[in-house]
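sanity check this record:
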Amino acid sequence: MSSRYRVAAYVSTLLTVLIWGTTFISTKVLLNDFNPLDILFTRFLIGYVVLWMVYPRVVEFRTWRIEVLFILAGFCGVTLYFLLENIALTYTYASNVGIIASTAPFFTAILAHFFLKNERINPSFIIGFIIAIFGISLITFNGSFTLKLNPLGDLLAVLACICWAVYSIAMRKISELGYPSIGSTRRVFFYGLLLMAPAFLFLDFQLNLQLIVEGRNLFNILYLGLGASALCFVTWGWSVGVLGAVKTSSYIYLVPVVTVTGSSFFLNEKITSTALLGVLLTIVGLFVSEKRVKIKK
């Protein structure tokens, strides 16, 4: 892989993290009028339609063995990850979920170690992970240390991280098969939406179209659908194909950094000196982790 592609992949990953780190603002606004399932289904439906418009070509079916990868990616990366994370927030503290969600690179590295031959864990990854998680903890608490364990909610958050790790591994394998990034992402969205349907039987789904077209709601749902879903899942999948699942996932460490910065800018939330120290440690942890994987050619 040429250095030009790798530089582009790093830029793509940073752009993705920048957008994902600010999605909580849009979600927080939309939660005033919609429930989590409403938001989740609508954003990925918009993303799916837009990807068809951008790439109106049918992605070929090869074998069911390959198709299982798409199904697995859609089920774990779209359906389960977001549902488990949202449900976890109803049982435990947001700070707990925030910290646990940032451990996704750790689970990705473990699965990659066993299922991807060209990605292995080395000591620098462990050191970087510890530094980053400590920094993320400082950011999450932002000067108020009130960690409380809630077994059910915390377990659901951990399961969400494992689902994201499975999604990352599946996308890495899909990228190696030569599928177009937009087409493969669209197929993943299709299975994610399809497998989301059973949740309608157990969770409240009452999408109000009249509320969606209101100015503020429309802007935020389009931001989630066009930016955080259609664009970011394509750029993330492409970056995974270029950099590898583990190296790309380590940039998830930066999501809380973007989040706390965005909350200060858009919501006027206070950033303490403790949180600033956490930002510094998180960035240091990322740089240390970047040395952890060597991709074999």
User: Anything to note?
Assistant: Residues 292-297 have pLDDT under 50 and may be disordered. The chain has one domain: 3-289.
